[in-house]
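Title: Comparing notes on inverse folding

I've been comparing how different people in this forum approach sequence design from structure. To keep things fair, I'm posting one structure and asking everyone to reply with a full sequence. Here's the target:
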């Protein structure tokens, strides 16, 4: 196995106490919930998605987004070394970066920081394009609320109409009692 990069003893604040990164890793491993490698990778990233800065300890939803990404995909020759792993949210990892290829964007031998900067740019561009699309959908979906109240066959992409939702809830409450 390739030698692991030595963590710099960076100081991070935790509950008002000053801890070195090594001490944070040690305490996380001591909880029994963390492997040492995962703790090191996460502490290096300050527990944030390295592509979009989502605080992965900020909420249960964010915590459930926790992923590790091969910065240079294995399909493009990327290794399993810690240097090639970034802490990432699931959305960045699977939805936004899935087609990213370093070749046209980075010089051979680019540093980890340069590669991450290139991924961040790529994700920013994709996010901007999707946002534009979503805004278009919002304009269609919420153009005129009075009009949608009158229509009986209103399109509801996110669930059944209120009556059906109520019926489903009643059914579930019987089943789950
Ligand atoms: Zn992210």
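Reply #1:
Here's my take.
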């Amino acid at each position: 196995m390739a030698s692991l990069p030595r963590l710099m003893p960076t100081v991070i604040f935790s509950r008002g106490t000053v801890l070195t990164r090594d001490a944070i890793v040690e305490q996380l491993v001591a909880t029994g919930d963390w492997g040492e490698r995962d703790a090191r990778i996460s502490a290096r990233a300050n527990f944030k998605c390295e592509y979009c800065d989502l605080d992965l300890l900020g909420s249960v939803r964010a915590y459930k987004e926790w992923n590790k990404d091969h910065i240079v995909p294995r399909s493009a020759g990327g290794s399993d070394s810690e240097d090639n792993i970034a802490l990432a949210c699931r959305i960045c990892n699977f939805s936004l970066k899935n087609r990213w290829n370093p070749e046209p964007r980075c010089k051979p031998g680019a540093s980890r920081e340069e590669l991450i900067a290139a991924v961040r740019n790529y994700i920013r561009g994709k996010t901007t394009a999707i946002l534009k699309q979503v805004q278009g959908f919002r304009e269609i979906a919420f153009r005129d609320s009075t009009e949608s109240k009158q229509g009986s066959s209103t399109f509801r992409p996110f669930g059944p109409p209120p009556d059906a939702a109520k019926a489903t809830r009643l059914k579930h409450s019987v089943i789950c009692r």
